[in-house]
Amino acid sequence: MTGNNIYELFRSRFPADSTAVFLEHDRGELLYSQIEEETGLLAGLFKQLGVNKGARVIMQVDKSPEAILLYLACLRVGAVFIPLNTAYTANEVSYFMGDARPHLLVCRPQDYDSLLPHVKDLNVPHVMTLDNQGCGSLIEAMKDASSCADVEVCEGSDLASIIYTSGTTGRSKGAMLSHDNLSSNAKVLHKYWQWEEGDVLLHALPIFHVHGLFVALHCALLNGSKVIFMPKFELTAVKNNLLRATVMMGVPTFYVRLLEDSEFTKEMCSNIRLFVAGSAPLLSETFEEFEKVSGHKILERYGMTEAGMVISNPYDGARVPGTVGYPLPGVAARVVDEEGVEVSRGEVGGLDIKGPNVFVGYWCMPEKTAEEFREDGFFITGDMATMDVDGRISIVGRAKDLVISGGYNVYPKEVEIMIDEIEGVKESAVIGVKHPDFGEGVTAIIVKDRDVSLAEQNVIEFMAGKIARFKQPQKIIFVDELPRNAMGKVQKKELRDIYSEIYSK
Q1: What domains sit in the chain, N to C, each tagged with a CATH number?
Q2: What share of residues in the chain are helix, strand, coil (percent, to 5)?
Q3: How far apart, in Å, are the Cα atoms of 55 and each of 161, 229, 321, 330, 438?
Q4: pTM of the model
Q5: How far is CA 429 from the centre of its chain?
Q6: What pLDDT, in 10s, does the model give residues 150-180?
Q7: Smallest Cα–Cα separation from 407: which of 219, 196, 271, 233?
Q8: 5 and 152 Cβ atoms separated by less than 8 Å
């Protein structure tokens, strides 16, 4: 293998049998041999369009095999892949385009007209379409392209992807992930979770997210495994496919949904060797009930956009509910006070991490990058944690007020800014409250003018279409005032305590 392009790593692990299935999907199968053919055509098209090494490609499309081929083709030519949640509105996508300055935008056909004015304003050179049936202008252009057999030689430090996250200020940040970041994490997870010959992955996760795109698919590619590639989590389809799979990765909501179904049984899970949960906290009650019904202990792990997977409960050994386990091989983790000094075992502090999987920095934000790293190279995650005497880590909260709902990050400030635009709203506070399905429910606490008639429906209607649905509050509560400390800062912890049971009633 020449260079450190992660595509070369994947290709070195493709099965010797050229007819082996990579993706089994609702329209048929994608074979491992077809990866090379199809990405070669896409690479040829990219060359025609001027999408060369280092060029950014933004993708906002529905989940499909063609979307995965687009990702792999970007790796192959050394382009920087930027996947976006399909729930983002045109205005939100415009921000990402303005920040990343892509050479190519690939969107859904139905979004083309709303995105085109932004594409023109920002001088994005090319925009193409791709739908969930594998049709669109991208595919038509690919058919006419000359195949390119080359794989771009990349240094390990070259960028492979930018994944956008956000700070509590509401401004999105692009986490730059290198080929080494991605390949080191994939190899560690493949070994740590003991992937075996013949493993089959049940994939019902979105592919614009680290969990579904990097963690799940990278492990399968390194193993040369078949992936049962589902458009989304659909309960009946998941149940029907469990007996055909050996590994399932999901957000806690997946497991809650299975437990709610009276037909879900231990026999249904008899072929599975590993259930993995992440992207949101797994409730101890869910862990225990799932073990009782299925006979399986879910393996919970901890990761983040900036580092992929960082900490995991062991494959062999105790999987303790309410904990995320131990730092992965090659990863250092510590729990520290505000000055970065390690606290005593069992005490709560901030979680810092360091390792080859930790990102390069934030795109075009050197000052923000510098703020998030300590002088000795440890990255400040912003999560609060404890570490017991044997090194097992539990996440107990967040230093920042990030809400994780259904596995998606919601940044309160962004939602608050929009709510505060509503006529009659004096101020608002957005918090995450324990939710039985989503981990946390987005909850808005609003103070309105006394002489204004404002109802929950007014707020919902105002936000519709302006901000992604997963960011919109699931409950809206009107109060006379928000609790504050002596310095005037809103006490969100107090709000979370007051409304801690609203989703259990």
Answers
A1: 29-153 (3.40.50.980), 403-498 (3.30.300.30)
A2: 30, 25, 40
A3: 11, 28, 43, 30, 36
A4: 0.86
A5: 25
A6: 999 999 999 999 999 854 445 789 999 999 9
A7: 233
A8: yes
